[in-house]
Amino acid sequence: MNELASSPARIRNIAELARLAGVSAGTVSRALANSDLVNKDTRERIQALAREHGFRPNQMARRLRVQETRVIGIVVPLGHDRKQHLSDPFFMAILGHLADRLTENGYDIMLSRVLPDQEDWLERIVDSGMLDGVLLIGQSNQFETIERVAAWYKPMVVWGSHRAGQAHCTVGVDNRLGGRLAGECLIQAHRKRLAFMGNLSAPEFADRYQGLCDAASAAGLAKPLALNVHLASDDLAAEIAQHIDQIAAEVDGLAAGSDMIAMVAVRALADRGIKVPEQVSVTGFDDLPLAQQIVPRLTTVRQDLVSGAREMVELLFQRMAGQDAESVEMTPVLIRRDTA
Is 220 in the same domain as 241? Predict the structure, then answer.
């Protein structure tokens, strides 16, 4: 006999399963949810029929009925650096930690890389009806947009810099202090002609540059140069190469806005025959795993992504439950290695 012909017909919906079981659709729905409101024998019989006939309830439809999707949006806005990829090691690191925390708590994730071409891009995400909450990785150049939405949408937490009086809840390090730590490290290495490399239109990078300026001012040094580069992997090496002549002539201490910028800069300096740290000292920011694998190993400022991701998820759950949750600002730590 043909096995396919003898297998039970698939059931398409709860109504069909209810007719087969001889009960109401409500009883089937409660039985499949393992509710104690249905007696054990009936519950087990309905569940066995569902397995036999290959029926799986539409979880999304059920979640929408109870106004809970069990899905969290992880959104990466790229207004300041439109070519940057999600494959960037920083994004991959924090995404992994966030995904681990969410899935361990029974949530699915919806990932969006957003080029904010329309003013209401964030409203369209939070109003989609598909999400229980939103985690933003970075403020990009969208601070005002995030503030506007945060005034009425509470289940949202942002990785980024904190400003006094802001409406949106952030988790991140004290970026200005981190920039100062990098500057003090370079100055302790007897560097006097400092520069910062990064995109100052991003609040985090702007704060790191201000911290570097604080360190230079305290030491009586000139204001550090600001060398603009983007984080897009397609352009980063070429943009840094354009600054190498200026660095060679005017800079002996370089504070990069991220580890990736620092590592590419170290390679560009080496290609030019400029020794790190003998001629130019370099610091990064993040302390990604790659930072201690390159040669020379990268001196950097650590922001604890594991703790940061945990804080973001815990604050989001508090806000989803209707509780107040304040921003968290972590303390950066200078990690001394070989480049400074």
Answer: yes
